[in-house]
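Margin note from the TA: students keep mixing up input and output lines. Inputs are the sequences; the output is the structure of the whole complex. Example:
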Amino acid sequence: MKVEKIVVNRKFGVLDIIIFLAIVSVLYLAISPGIGGNVSTTGIQVSTDISNLPMYVLKSVGRMTAAYILSLIFTLVYGYIAAHNEKAEKVMVPVLDILQSIPVLSFLPAVVLGLIALFPNNNVGLELSCIILIFTGQAWNMTFSFYHSIKILPKDLKEASDVFGLNKWQNFKKLEVPFAVIGLVWNSMMSWAGGWFFLMACEMFTLKGKDFRLEGIGSFLQTAASEGDKKALAWGIAALILVIVLLDQLFWKPVTVWADKFKIELTESGEAPRSFVLTLLRRSVIIEFFLEKIYEPIAEKLNYCIDKLAVRLSNKEKSERKDIGFIVKWAVKILVFGLLLYSGFNIFKLLMQLSKNEWGRILPAVAYSFLRVIAAQIIALIWTVPAGVAIGMNKKIANILQPIIQVVASIPATALFPVILIYFMNKLGGLNVASVILMLMGTQWYILFNVIAGAMAIPEDLKAAAKTFGLKGWEKWKVVILPSIFPYLLTGMVTATGGCWNASIVSEYVNFGGNTVSTIGLGSLISEATEKGNYPLLLVSTIVMCIVVVIVNKTLWKRLYALSEEKFKIEL
Amino acid sequence: MNTVKEFIKVKGITKYFGGSDKPTLEDINLTINEGEYIAILGPSGSGKSTLLRTITGLIKPDGGEVIFDGQKVNGVNPYASIVFQTFALYPWLNVRENVELGLKAKGFPKDYTRRKAEELISLIGLDGFEEAYPKELSGGMRQRVGFARALAVEPKLLCLDEPFSALDFLTAENLRTELVELWQEKRMPIKSIIMITHGIEEAVLMADKIVMLSRNPAHIVAEIKIDLQHPRNRKSPEFEKIVDNVYKLLIKGKIEESEDDKLSKSINHSSEKGEEVEKPVQIPNAHVGVMSGLLELIDDNGGKMDIYQLGGDLMMEIDDLLPNIEGISMLNFAQVREGDIFITDLGKEFVEADIDESKELFKNQLESISTFRLIMKVLNNKKNHTMKEEFFKELFKKHFPQHELEEIMDIIIAWGRYAELFNYDYDSEELYLENEEVI
């Protein structure tokens, strides 16, 4: 798997700070209705009866699918607007950049409280909030990828579509989306795997002292672990792995093979990926019948309607929009300013409620979590770099191992976390160590995949040259291997550290067997604040985490990226 | 040919790019008649394709207007289509879908679209490849799809943006012949063809008229009518004579231009005592290795060579050859007269010298070029004798065209490094003087 992360080459400016404040305000506004009120749970009980497993798994997959579809729609709309409207772009891209650095799980109380208030008597609100939370973990990288694809569209292809008079819809359908497909597919797979990670945390959590539960594989595993039901736990994990493998083979693999046709390449590459399922589908009579008799006529009608609409819209645009635009623009500006002022004042008030004692907890928490993140990264580097290079340098081994690693990697660390807790809780360093292990399990794969990709990309010439000069051992690593994999390693590490911060929220503060166990850390503070309904603390710790992530991104990673672009890019 | 009907009129087109003071196109005036096949010829970076895109309405000019068939072009011209150098086929659409692209966009009914695409695919000789994807096709076949796609919408004007330059020689020649045949037999309902090219022979082979552009800023240097009968024979004396003439015109335009620069350089030189800022001359895209190779070749040939012949011998496109010729004449190693190039005594000395001596000669020559003197002045005046590359780019921005700045700077650095005039640090992007270089 190739993991892509697009780091936007922008300077961090005043605009970013304003946007950051605006996002915090929105976060606050979302929480605020729940601050005074009480929440009631829907009283769903999660059983660990194995016969319930198929149903639970289906429900979880349903949530994932809903969240993914939501992400896809968001991606296409947001990415399209950001890429086409220069004014909007100036705000939309930094917003995306910051949203990407915000720990997803901090959204939890805001989303849950808001939606439960909307649907007080059933669990629709809870279902929706679970879906939205998964969405917030999936959407950003997909959106970036789509936006970026539109921005780097080859000039001549764009000119061709202009010369031949394609309208906006035709342009979108025939040029922009096809061009973006490959990036979108890879990012979708990454988001899907990330979705599992959050699903585990979102199906069962405590908020303001109340337990919220949804029936699903995540809650099943957590319940089983809490009850110490090892048989149920084993079955649950087996079912989860089965589902992941099945989805990979039945859905993602065919999709990647299909996406291959959108590659921009001058010659047919020797080894096109293959999928048994896709070949089967393509040859199937039933599918062909469905496509010809049902899908195509409908798609054609729909297409015709949208075509008409697009033509009409573009005509209208020219004539009408000017005068209204002016008023709307100012109204929006005033509204935004007012909202900012209002929520800013309230945030300030909220923060004043925070006791000195609580303020004092933040700095040590940052330090502890930071150390854990570093520890997890170092351990990951120690094993993934040699392993990745060994796999990547040997194409045969790589071809065999890569699919296996992919499956292992797509098992969400949060699902295995309860198992780890059982072993670490009372011995072996407790939660402090278990937390690092969760971070490691959740994020090491990003690094491994990238190292493998980097090692595979080392040109044969360089390897041959190293051989003829008799480079061996450390010398070979220093001169050939490390410089070659550096850009890839960096991409992996950026993604991995982001993941670590999110993992800290799940792993530093846990409910286990009816008891609450915690260790010092920023993630722990966020979880604790969520559970106790301590909003000032939640807000502060979330903001602090964002700031830490943004600072690390903008200083350390950005600089290293610049270095790798300059020095270690292999151009032959 | 008796009733000449005006088809396109380009009136005073001017276009600026990227906040540059120097226009890319300046006051271009051109009339194209119905039934004319025009070739626009000019060195790379001369704004040929900007001119083409202005005529098709893809680019809006900053000044002037284009009248197409009696109407002012405003927005993309629906009666023009383009065949691209890079083919610009959509890789995810098969041959038929690519050809149908423009038809569908124009909203033709489905059966007409289908029929028309079939017709064009057949006309252009791609029967049997309707369902193939571009990546399955060879370069020549891909460009056939490009032609079919452009012709399917029945344009009045067909624009060709160096359509043959990405193809190998034989494929290109084959396609050229077929296109001329189609055009001559009037099998396409096209009123005019505009072709951009940097190949002189290609232009003489195909066009009725050559419009020659100069660069920085582009203006029309000459319009040459070609009255040869089709099919034209590359080896015929008439053909070769025209090609030779076009060569001379092109080189004359180029070298005169740099003579102007030289003049201003020497004027500046004399007034240097008044501490006036020197105007840097633009350094041509010439490589030290190629220049000394050329000099050796001329020397071996008795010190004189025909530039047209030189290009042929080296299999070099005029576009790649000319900057190097400009380079050696700027360094006074050679002189150009009437399409011939002569080696100078200095050039002879340079060719015969060993490495260190030739570097010394090169260095001496560089020191007489204002651009390099300017750089040395800056570096010498700085305490640490180091300066960011960025600084010089800013400095040269006003004098050199924006889109070539990067390239010119690279050449300047390459020359300076070869002559050991100054040094360059890739990581910090700085020019600096070694200790002994400080004057």
